Amino acid sequence: MDRVTLPIVKTLSGLLVSTAVLDEVLENNDQEITELITRLRTECQDSLNNNKITSVLSVMCELLRVSSPVMTKQIITHVTLFLSHQYPKVRDIAATTLLTAM
Questions:
Q1: What span is annotated as the signal peptide, if there is one (predicted)?
Q2: Is a pLDDT exceeding 70 seen at residue 30?
Q3: Which of 55, 65, 74, 57 is nearest to 5 (CA)?
Q4: Would you say 44 and 60 are in contact if contact means Cβ atoms under 8 Å apart?
Q5: Residue 19 CA to chain centroid, in angstroms?
Q6: Distance separating alpha carbons of residues 42 and 37, to the nearest angstrom
Q7: 83 compared with 26, residue with greater pLDDT
Q8: What is the pLDDT of residues 31-62, one digit of tens each?
């Protein structure tokens, strides 16, 4: 399953980082952001793949730019869960990504 989802998440991350195309789409659509966050969270919930977790963290932190204050709280809650991950590398990536997004 990682063969499909990892490239999709990386592409979404690249789109959110490089262009403002999705900003207009996601700006006032909290329901789409909520659905995206829950799908990303379930996708990497039991994953030990650092690349997948890094890509998911990148997407979540990029969503901080376009989300409402309520969604920002939800995204930060999900990202902070990665700060207590069992692997130190994931904790480091989560802290760095969250710090740069703020």
A1: 1-20
A2: yes
A3: 55
A4: no
A5: 16
A6: 9
A7: 83
A8: 877 888 888 888 888 788 888 888 888 888 88
Shortest CA distance to 58 belongs to which of 29, 22, 8, 94?
94
How would residue 26 be classed by pLDDT, with cut points 50, 70 and 90?
low
Residue 88: both structure tokens together:
């130190």
| CA separation for the pair 97, 102 (Å, rounded) | 9
Tell me the C-alpha distance between 50 and 77, whole Å.
20
Please return the burial class of 10, using the count of CB atoms within 10 Å of its CB with bins 0-12, 13-18 and 19+: middle
Alpha carbons 53 and 43: distance in angstroms, whole number = 9
pLDDT in the model for residue 62:
82
